[in-house]
């Protein structure tokens, strides 16, 4: 108690002395100042220490180990886990194709998926699912392709559709041209509207004008097409995923279909594509001459003529005799011939006899090619079937009539016969060489025969080749019993041949404008007056293929001039060496003289190689076995460019040619004249090669 009272005494004394020394007001203020200073200092020290501690704990690693349970463990597991997805890389069943497809898928994924997905997430599940979906699409596409019979589609349906489009376009051009000529004061109708009007007539009230002219409708059509493709190719679970399906559909429409359509519609791209394709197949001399004959540009032809004049002048400066005299003369002769073709084409274009954008038949105004009363050559039916150029015009004509399937059947059977004969003979020779080997394998031949029957002769065929039912039954029974020979289709082919040779087809073709265009391309249009032949058909007869279907036999039989109306003599005048594309070969110049009934003569030079003579000999030997004994100079592997050797061969070949022209030989072997005369025509000769090669060339063209 005494301690307590003592403490109070000293406190009271201190306060009294403090107030006595500083006064009441000053003492209170000083006391408050001291208290505030102490409180403020303590606060500053506390907050400064707290902030430093937090910074140190966050930046420096803790010496206390992290716990291995709880969220930390989960985060570490998710961060460091690596899943390996295994994929089956088999898609088409062919390892060579699968490797290429896998590489394409890798590039597609890298350029179109990974480039944007890596910015969103590094999860591999999505990438695995996308890759798996792409593989399933490729597998489905491969399976669907195996179900399609590509041969008839590519050789018949696709060709027919393309040819129909071209015919429709030409008819539209012709109609626009006629309307413009009727009244030049009026604006001619729009080509596009005329085209689609004709399409309505040809397609039985089916028209695609809205899809082709309206971008919005075109996009809608492509979207519907994409939906069908996705239904066929996508897995069911992906197709029923509407967001995914719509995204893929828009990518197809805007990223694939529309750009491809716009690209294929660009004339510059088409021209560049043609140039690129020509780089792999160098253009030979015959192709160049044909391009000149078909050109419709005066500027181009005049430029070519100027270049030819320069080359002719350069080669004439070298025509000074010597060892290369024959070669120089050959080059000069070739250049002069090309120049004459160029000048002839220029003269025809300047006279309005060439091509223009508005004429029918691909631009060729056939009436301008002919003169009143002009007579035409008569090409034999066999020549039309075996000459590629003539066959292309006949196919176009038959397509216009809607009977092209008969011609395609005939050509397919020709190819089948040659192929089957070769396979059967090869198998039989192998069996003779090895008696233990099995008989000929007819599985492929049987499949080919059945395919031809299904495509052209069966009730499911569209359109169907109509022949005798008895022949159809016998052929089908032979196919089903696998009694296959190369002659299995011969009875039906003979019926089709006679049907094509009738006036309804072959005769009507010779009365059509297509035949006149063919003669013009073969350089067979000339005025050959004859007392027993009628003049050219009038405009009404040539207006369309269908209008000539009912031409009478009398009108057709006296229409043209045949080979028998000419006296043709030929002689090999000289020989030379030609260098083309780094290769040198010998060429023999044949001087051909054609004497007409009125005494007029046409003299032309035809250039042929030894291989042409050899091929002609093989063709004649194949048709006339007795003529196979004719003497033809043999081949020589070395020193075959020697001047003396070439002269000896020229004499031997000329003797061979004179033997073939002998009237007695031609009388004993009917058809030899028709076989020889195409060989003596200027320009490229349709080489015989082998029977298989001839038929395949004909079929492809």
Main sheet: strand order: 3-4-5
- Given helix and strand content, the structural type is mainly alpha
Low-confidence stretches: 355-364, 527-562, 689-701
Average residue-wise pLDDT: 75
Shape: elongated
- In terms of DSSP E residues, the strand content is 5-15%
Main β sheet profile? 3 strands, antiparallel
How many individual helices?
A: 31
Query: Tally of extended strands?
Result: 5
* Helix percent band: 55-70%
Distance between the termini: 137 Å
What is the radius of gyration computed over CA atoms, rounded to a whole number of angstroms?
45 Å
How are the SSEs ordered, and which strands pair?
Elements: H1 2-59, H2 71-80, H3 95-117, H4 124-146, H5 150-182, H6 191-202, H7 209-213, H8 215-233, H9 236-239, H10 242-264, H11 267-280, H12 285-294, H13 298-317, H14 325-350, H15 360-363, H16 366-369, E1 376-377, H17 381-386, H18 388-401, H19 404-433, H20 443-457, H21 469-480, H22 490-501, H23 503-510, H24 513-521, H25 539-542, H26 553-557, E2 560-561, E3 567-580, E4 583-595, E5 601-608, H27 610-623, H28 643-661, H29 663-668, H30 672-676, H31 691-700
Parallel strand pairs: 1-2
Antiparallel strand pairs: 3-4, 4-5
Q: What does it look like?
A:
- The chain is 65% helix and 6% strand.
- It has 701 residues and is mainly alpha-helical.
- The strands form 2 sheets. The protein has a 3-stranded antiparallel sheet with strand order 3-4-5, with helices on both faces. Strands 1-2 form a two-stranded parallel ribbon.
- Strand 4 (583-595) and strand 5 (601-608) form a beta hairpin.
- Helix 5 (150-182) crosses helix 6, helix 13 (298-317) packs antiparallel against helix 14 (325-350) and helix 18 packs across helix 19.
- The longest helix is centred in the N-terminal third of the chain and has 58 residues, at 2-59.
- The termini are far apart.
């Amino acid at each position: 108690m005494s301690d307590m009272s003592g403490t109070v005494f000293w406190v009271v004394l201190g306060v009294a002395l403090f107030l006595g020394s500083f006064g009441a007001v000053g003492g209170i203020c000083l006391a408050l100042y001291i208290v505030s200073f102490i409180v403020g200092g303590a606060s500053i020290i506390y907050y400064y220490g707290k902030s430093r501690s937090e910074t140190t704990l966050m930046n420096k690693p803790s010496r206390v180990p992290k716990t291995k349970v709880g969220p930390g463990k989960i985060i570490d597991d998710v961060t460091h886990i690596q899943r390996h997805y295994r994929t089956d890389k088999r898609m088409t069943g062919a390892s060579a194709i699968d490797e290429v497809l896998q590489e394409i898928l890798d590039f597609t994924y890298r350029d179109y998926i990974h480039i944007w997905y890596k910015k969103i997430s590094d999860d591999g599940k999505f990438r695995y699912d996308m890759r798996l979906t792409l593989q399933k699409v490729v597998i489905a596409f491969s399976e669907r392709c195996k179900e399609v019979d590509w041969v008839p589609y590519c050789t018949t349906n696709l060709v027919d559709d393309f040819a129909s489009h071209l015919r429709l376009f030409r008819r539209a051009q012709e109609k626009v041209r006629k309307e413009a000529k009727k009244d030049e004061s009026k604006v001619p109708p729009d080509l596009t509207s005329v085209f689609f009007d004709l399409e309505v007539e040809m397609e039985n009230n089916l028209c695609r004008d809205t899809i082709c002219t309206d971008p919005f409708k075109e996009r809608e059509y492509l979207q519907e097409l994409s939906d069908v493709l996705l239904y066929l190719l996508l897995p069911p679970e992906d197709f029923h995923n509407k967001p995914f399906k719509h995204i893929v559909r828009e990518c197809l429409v805007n990223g694939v279909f529309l750009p491809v359509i716009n690209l294929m519609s660009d004339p510059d791209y088409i021209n560049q594509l043609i140039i690129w394709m020509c780089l792999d197949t160098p253009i030979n001399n015959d192709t160049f001459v044909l391009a000149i004959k078909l050109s419709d540009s005066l500027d181009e032809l005049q430029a070519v003529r100027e270049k030819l004049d320069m080359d002719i002048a350069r080669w004439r400066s070298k025509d000074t005799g010597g060892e290369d005299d024959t070669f120089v003369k050959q080059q000069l002769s070739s250049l002069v011939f090309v120049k004459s073709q160029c000048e002839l084409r220029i003269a025809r274009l300047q006279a309005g006899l060439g091509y223009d954008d508005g004429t029918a038949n691909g631009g060729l105004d056939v009436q301008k090619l002919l003169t009143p009363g002009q007579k035409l050559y008569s090409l034999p039916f066999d020549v039309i079937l075996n000459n590629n150029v003539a066959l292309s015009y006949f196919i176009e004509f038959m397509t216009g009539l809607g009977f092209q399937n008969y011609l395609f059947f005939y050509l397919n059977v020709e190819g089948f016969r040659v192929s089957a004969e070769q396979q059967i003979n090869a198998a039989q020779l192998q069996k003779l060489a090895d008696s233990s080997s099995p008989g000929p394998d007819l599985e492929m031949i049987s499949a080919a025969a059945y395919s031809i029957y299904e495509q052209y002769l069966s009730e499911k065929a569209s359109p169907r080749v109509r022949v005798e039912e008895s022949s159809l039954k016998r052929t089908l029974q032979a196919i089903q019993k696998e009694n296959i020979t190369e002659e299995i289709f011969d009875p039906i082919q003979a019926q089709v041949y006679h049907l094509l040779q009738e006036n309804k087809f072959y005769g009507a073709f010779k009365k059509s404008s297509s035949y006149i265009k063919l003669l013009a391309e073969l350089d067979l249009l000339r005025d050959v007056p004859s007392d027993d032949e009628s003049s050219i058909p009038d405009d009404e007869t040539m207006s369309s293929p269908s209008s000539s279907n009912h031409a009478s036999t009398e009108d057709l039989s006296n229409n043209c001039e045949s080979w028998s109306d000419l006296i043709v003599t030929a002689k090999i005048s000289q020989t030379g060496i030609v260098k083309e594309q780094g290769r040198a070969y010998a060429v023999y110049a044949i001087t051909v003289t054609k004497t007409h009934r009125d005494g007029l003569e046409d003299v032309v030079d035809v250039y042929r190689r030894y291989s042409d003579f050899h091929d002609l000999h093989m063709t004649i030997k194949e048709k006339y076995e007795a003529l196979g004994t004719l003497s033809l100079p043999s081949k020589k592997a070395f020193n075959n460019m020697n001047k003396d050797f070439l002269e000896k061969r020229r004499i031997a070949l000329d003797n061979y040619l004179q033997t073939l022209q002998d009237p007695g030989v031609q009388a004993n072997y009917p058809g030899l004249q028709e076989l020889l005369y195409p060989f003596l025509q200027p320009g490229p000769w349709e080489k015989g090669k082998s029977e298989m090669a001839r038929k395949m060339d004909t079929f492809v063209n």
